[in-house]
Amino acid sequence: MSENKIKSVLARCIPGLTSLAKKGPSGWMIIVGMVIVLGLVVMTAIGPWISPYNPSASNVGPSIAPPNSQFLMGTNVLGQDMLSRVLCGGSIMLQVAALSVLICFIMGVPIGLFSSYIGGFVDSVFSLVMDALYAFPGLVIAIAIAAMLGPGIINMSLSIAVVYIPTYFRIVRSQVLSIKELAYTEAARATGAKWHTILFRYIFPNVIPSIVVVTTINFADAVLTAAGLTFIGLGVSIDIPDWGLDLTKGRELLASGAWWVITFPGIMIILLALGFTFIGEGLSELQNPKLQR
Amino acid sequence: MPLLEISSLAVDYRTSRGTVHAVEDVSFSLEKGETLGLAGESGSGKSTLGLSIMRLVPYPGIIAKGRIKIDEKDVLELSDENMRSIRGRKVAYVFQDPMISLNPVKRISAHFTQLIITHEPKTKKEEAYGRARDILKKLGILPERINDYPHQFSGGMRQRIMIGLAIALNPDLVIADEPTTALDVIVQAKILDLLESLRKIYGMALVLISHDVSILLERCDKIIVMYAGHMVEYANSTELYKNPKHPYTQGLLKSIPNIELVDQKLSAIPGSPPNMLHPLKGCHFLPRCAYANEKCSVKEPPLVDMGNNHFVRCFLDEEGANGE
Amino acid sequence: MGLRVYIITRILLTIPTLLLLLTMVFLIMRVLPGDPVDLHFERKGTPEQIAQMRQILGLDKPLWNQYVDYLWGIADIGYLLRHEYPNLGKSMQVTSQDVGGQIFSVFPATLELAIYSMIIASVIGILLGTVSSKSYNSLRDHLIRGFGTITYAIPVFFLGIVFQLIFGVYLHWLPVSLRINPNVEPPAHVTGLYTFDSIFEGNMVKLVESLKALLLPSLTLGIILSGVFIRLTRTNMLETLRLDFVTAARARGLKESTVTYDYALRNAFLPILTMMGLQFAMLLGGAILTETTFTWPGLGSYIVGRINYRDYTAIQGAVVMFGLFVALVSLVVDVLYAYFDPRIRL
Lengths: 293, 324, 346
Description:
The complex is a heterotrimer of chains A (about 290), B (about 325) and C (about 350). By secondary structure, chain A is mainly α. Chain A is built from eleven helices and no strands. Chain A has a domain of about 200 residues: MetI-like fold (Orthogonal Bundle), CATH 1.10.3720. Chain A is about 75% helix and about 0% strand. The longest helix of chain A is centred in the C-terminal third of the chain and has 38 residues. Chain B is an alpha/beta fold and about 325 residues long. Chain B contains ten helices and twelve strands. In chain B, strand 11 and strand 12 form a beta hairpin. The radius of gyration of chain B is 21 Å and the shape is globular. The model of chain B has no long low-confidence stretch (mean pLDDT about 90). In chain C, about 75% of the residues lie in helices and about 0% in strands. The termini of chain C are close together. The model of chain C has no long low-confidence stretch (mean pLDDT about 80). Chains in contact: A-B, A-C, B-C. At the B-C interface, helix 2 and helix 3 of B face helix 11 and helix 12 of C.
């Protein structure tokens, strides 16, 4: 039964994918990005089952062993198998990224929609606050909030989310402002449409394309910021395998030249961020015909 | 020996959605001191033709076929460096929109001195500066304003400056692409008069590109009418006015409003501009032509020599008339 | 309008923004769940300890009072003149020390890192972006764009560690931490920027040593930031190169290099400059991570260190400092813009 479900989902995706492929290099970028992201998500999900060793178990092998036939990616200072840690290490990052994007979206988009639609004093106030927040170095805000809230997945997500809400707000607002003035919105008003109809049926559908692009870039940024917070020590305090944590711990081994402890987790983070970036880049190129020849 | 000789020129734009044949099979010549008018609507290829003479067709355009000879030398075979030295010195270009043709962060004096010193490197700055002031005088602009920025001038004055930059080094040929389109009517006449007076002083040839055929009839010796990238008619202006042979030319001339007639109905050419991405087989003007018949849909009509330096691209019968 | 009037107007406009900024920081530090003093003692503090610290830091007063004190403290010019740093409260860890003093002593290190990183990022970004835009859609163009995209996805500390491994551990070419070789005395303090101070002192050895220490961190941060600048420059140049006055310049027979730099880049430069100014905030975030990686004793290391000590007034002070710095840079960028573009002034 689940096999049929997968088949029907694929059946619906394939025409979408082929039409994407037809759109040239931008379409290909999107497909590559989606493959990367999906691949990493699946890998992390089934990680516990396919890892050769328990990623959190210490001393399954010698300490700081370089990559060899038994431990394809070597071991770290605690004798943990790096390959297993890499396979399972995306979990926290993915959860934090997903959660923070969700929070951002739920908060930033409605505020942006309503503020710009209502206009006037309310809009000015919101814009001022959002602009001030936007100009502020993101990591600094995330650090400040994370420092106050303490460690944990939810707290991390909140800190990161606050940084990016202004981005959603601005994009939504600029789109709404331009659409608000278009003739067909006025026409709708003239025919007596209620404000929520105008907002949700006329304006919102046109805002969606830009929001999608922002969301993908947001994912990429969230991954990198989460890694950054972990590196500083504001990550999750439990010993769950995490790429960011490995980078932090691996740094202490620098002098011994144990490159494998940091290289593989680092590449994973880059891949995840790249995947989302590709999707976002491809999407924004498709939407911007000026840049396409 | 003609100053400018174009043979079978073809220019294509290779876009991702298909190739557009912006200019096809264009041939004409221009003598020293002559004026040639290029008439046609937007998209007819007249601007592309003008730019191709300078080898300035923008990406993704390329000159696909033909020869462009200036003083017997084919410019398509020149190196980039040699072509560069011709531009501005032997052949010059006046652009359509004076509001965006000058460098906003450069003073007018710098525009001139840079031009002069690039082509005549031994010139001293003061000398170039002095020459610039002289040119401004000829353009009717107060020389004291030479150190102003472009945005401090009106549209008409900026166009004069553009013309000044074009004639500064006494070129043999000036190509003016719709020099008056972006300006209001009163200024238009002044600009065209200025071009004419400068032309008489310097003795240069002029290619005047415009969608306004009445201007060309007034000021040009010869006229080429372009449609969908093709030359559809080529004649001396008086001949063209008295005896237009191509249905498009006839339509153009008929649509010039006559101020002396009372209750005149404005005449227009029926139909819409051609789709350059998916051109028709046969004559491109067919959908809008009152005289079209079967012959016109099969092949492209050839360029017919009517004598008296008059050429028409149309299927004409023995007496030289269009089909019924 | 004149440049002077514009500058004054712009400075005046900064004040409400700064106020908003300071308020936001205050809200984050005070209004979020968790009492700073309580957290400082990690919930193990005795009532006397808590009360004492509260009193020293003025946290026993009502919130409104604290807000006013906080703002007033920063605006206190007298304090600023007396101590050469603003009043940002006292450190929780060592309550006799002024946060302002601590911050101002570490800030020059961050400033130096920021300046050199910005220079590297700008040079790489503008050069590669221009080259890319001139050969639109070519292999070179795609490679440069690819480079720009990938550098954005690399965590800055990862690149830093990789550089440390390659150039420090394997090749032993460059130092991997600190601002200057420990065997060399830092130059006499004029600006706090070692490279400049070395020049003032006329000491070449110190200059070379401080540059050697600066190289890896600023290269790391600079390369990561350059990705964004490449894209910015490329997009702006592509648009500008299409404009009529560029073709008109070519039509006058000007050299292609002149057309690219004197016509296209000069006009594209201003929007690029503004956007670079906006990216400065990103630079500061990256600087924190870079400093941690290279043990660079700047404001970034300071704030990270203070987190471990749960020194919340210090964290607050550092965050305020970052905000002030960003506001200042944005002011400078706007003024530079007005200076370079005569149209804005008139």
